[in-house]
Hints:
7 strands; 14% strand
Amino acid sequence: MHSLFMDKPVAVQSAWTHTTVLLGEAVDALLGAPAVSAALPQAPVFVDATFGRGGHSRLLLSRLPPDASVIAFDQDPDAIAEAATIIDPRFTIRHQSFSHLSDLPAASASGVLLDLGISSPQVDNPARGFSFRQDGPLDMRMDSTRGASVAQWLAQATVEHITEVIRDYGEERFAGAIAKAIVARRQAQGPLVSTAELAQLVADTVKTREPGKDPATRTFQAFRIFINAELEELQQALTASLAVLRPGGRLVVISFHSLEDRIVKQFIAQHSRQVFDRRAPFAAPRAMRLMSIGRSKPSDAEVAGNPRARSAVMRVAERTTSMTTAELA
Length: 329
């Protein structure tokens, strides 16, 4: 059984606006690195791997020289439509997830930006199915043109699998109870098809919650992360960034919850040290490939003006110049 709204096209709505978090700070961090290496004298190329509504790309373009360029990625059709409004020969957009960074040539980018999570228009548009506050189809796909929706997955998933997803991606202590309630509802009344149905089921199941937090928050986060393979995509994109960045190029990542930030933090730490092969104690260690530049959060003023910025963490690292011949090839 599928929702009546499931296959309707999603249109761009100007009523849903987005305020880019850490906008100036992220662009400053990207441009703080040498844009052109002496060893690689190509024109600077910057990658906005999560275009969203284009805040970072537009500011980058306003500050880059005429020979520079910006390559953007986004899997959301609405974002692709928004990107079409940028009339600048230095800008290109790819309708792909950021794991496709690996498609770019090695050592071709002076900076890579990953602004993780979902944009305000995705949350605010009920037709996208991300919000537990408004009723809409239980979808949650970043790319609404492909893949299964949350409703389609829940229509056949086992209690064990649903529990695992809610526990691992939502860090929800009532994961088992919620999963059992979802399957019991499916068996008694048919599958869940709307966000309101899911939010109410979770509220009926979760009897206690932190003050001010909706009981469905963690479950919705978990299903969104799972259905879009967000953490797996992030791991692939971070790995690809090592090959794509030029020596001296910057990696800037903005995350919005602890699962994302932990992956980014561990990735930067892993590649910010020399690696010794214990099987070959006299061999030269593998050189560090990143240098951590720092971590920052939005100012109190930014959070006051945009409460959705409150959980953001930005981490910055720089690609070291000790790249191997194979990495530069």
